[in-house]
Amino acid sequence: MRDWRMAILANTIEARFPGVRVVVEPYRSDDDETVRWWMYVLHCRRRDHRAASGFAFEVGKKLFDGGIPFITDPRDAWGTTAYVAEMRRYARAARRTRPPRKRIA
Hints:
By secondary structure, the chain is of the alpha+beta class.
């Protein structure tokens, strides 16, 4: 992550909601060019979803001078499991690629 403000935001959310883990990924939106980050709030309790999103929005307004360049996506236990499984699948696919074999004539 190259933006220090996103690092501050992620650390602030993790401090405010103990037990959550914030993962920030680059994102490019065709509809809104100002959105550059997708922020996953993993292990977030279901009752804290709205509070975590609202907190991220309020802190983001202060850090980014009113513009919000991120989307907050709180995930409960099932959503976290799905996210981790998807990332493992991508990692396996990246490890599996290899150059083609030479043909023996």
